[in-house]
Amino acid sequence: MNAFVWLPLLSFACVSLVMVFVFLWALKLRNNGIVDIFWAFNFLVIAVLVWFLADGYAPRKNVVFVLTALWSLRLGLYLLKRVGGHLKEEEGRYKALRQEWSDGKFFVFFQMQALSNVFLCIPFFITSLNKNAPLQVSEYIGAGLWFICIIGEGVSDWQLQRFKANPANKGKVCQYGLWNYSRHPNYFFQWMLWVSVSIFSLSSPYGWLSLLCPLSIGYLLFKVTGIPMTEEQALRSKGEAYRDYQRTTSVFVPWFKKGN
Question: For the chain, what are the domain ranges?
Answer without folding.
Answer: 1-135, 136-260
